[in-house]
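step 4 of 6: structure.
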Amino acid sequence: MSEALYQSIVLERARHPHFAGRPAVFNAEGQSENRMCGDKISVFLNGTHLRHEAQGCAILAASAELMCEAAISKSADEIAILSDKFERLVQTGEQNPELGDLNALAGIAQYPSRVRCATLPWSALRDAITRAGSTGGAVNG
Amino acid sequence: MSTTLLPLDVHAIRQDFPILSQKVHGKPFVFLDSGASAQKPKQVIEAMRFVMEEQYANVHRGLHYMSEKASDAYENVRDKVAELLNAASREEIVFTRNATESINLVAYTWGRTALQPGDAVAVSEMEHHANLVPWQMLRDAHGTELRIVKITDSGELDWNSLEKVFADGKVKLMALTHMSNVLGTYTPVERLAKFAHERGAKILLDGAQAVVHRAVDVQAIDADFYVFSGHKLYGPTGIGVLYAKAEILEAMPPFLGGGDMISSVTYEKSTWAKPPHRFEAGTPAIIETIGLGAAIDYVRAIGFEAIAAHEQHLTEHALATLSQIEGLRILGSAQDRGGVFSFVMKDAHAHDIATLLDRQGIAVRAGHHCAEPLMGRLGVSSTARATFGLYNLPEEIDALATGLERVRKIFA
């Protein structure tokens, strides 16, 4: 099915986000932007929780949601490993059992021009972690 | 087979474009992105092959048979372009890389000499970045002012705003699109040229979109500068055109220095060749220029009257068909508009629309279309855009509509 990428989980998460919105209090904010299309996202670290503010397509929004869910309560080192595995998933399209619901985005590999939509939230998260580190805070210590 | 009556035998025309018979993702290739770059007919491909296989050498240099043949073929295209635009003379045609380079050439040379610090350049809210950024660069380097003429909600020039922008007499150049690459609006260029001239300003027209769809007569318009790119006119990439009135070119200093643009060179001093060669430093895009010549022959043989009638038919069909789609909004509703349709859909982002259409073999563009300030004016961050060429069929617009209905259902 050629539209497999837009399977229900992706659309569902884009449409009904659980992690969207700027929190009143947060330790650090990271940002990432795709200058080519104007999509942008902010990710907020708030203790062990994450929130995001995504402006862009369904893939960006769904990826941000799935990322926030997957990264909850993980350490910065664990997130770095997860981020690398996710990068491999969207580049190769090969499902990875360790990635759970993130596998819903494996189909993006067939759309090279859209891979960046899926990885943008992860860039913003890495940016947030870097900033948290430089100001003394961090994800889960 | 289609039974639609068209002003052109489009099915025959499509045979000239080898790429259109391809399948994409197993579906017939529906190419609705000609506004970004048009496909090439085999006449253009053949002309470029011919020059490389049988007539190639550098131009304007060799005192040998092949160089003379290539030079003649190359210079012959200057005549074809002059005829295409109805320029008063072939010397008014300068070859560049594309419309963007043509505008930069004008900004860099004419802008820095004919304009004084404090003079103003006026552009509109619906310019491509190519007709905005060079004037910003001139402003920053040379102290000119940059003024923006507003557009109305229908996507037409706002004449009240135009009057205001010109009120203090400082505007010395109006640089405007002849056809918006986002809204499809044609600007009333004759009236605008008169308006500018009456106020002591020159007019530059960005014809990148318009020249493909309508016969352009720079003398009837009374344009001071007119620019376009070859690749949107069914020609190759890497070749563009700057038209400017002879007396303006004559007074302009060179753009780039090097071979071919000089009259004499000593270590102390060089003197410049006459236009147009003054502005064509270095070995030009010989093969691409000859390809452009073939493209001009191709469209002129079909005739702009027939092309315009066909595209008008497509435009009306698209307006009627796309307006039926629930939640779809077409941006711009100018009275005088052509086959450029930007649209947004409720709940579906432009990139998702483009990706889902692509899976159905339909190529549209999505993004800000190199017109970020216009996106801001329209209150959107990006749009999907369908643009038509002379080879498009009403059935392809129907395929687009069907595809968009499918997108709507996915996001409903």
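step 5 of 6: annotate
 - Chain A touches chain B at residues 2-3, 5-6, 11, 15, 36-39, 55-59, 111, 114, 117 (CB under 8 Å).
 - Residues 115-134 of chain A form the longest helix (20 residues).
step 6 of 6: archive
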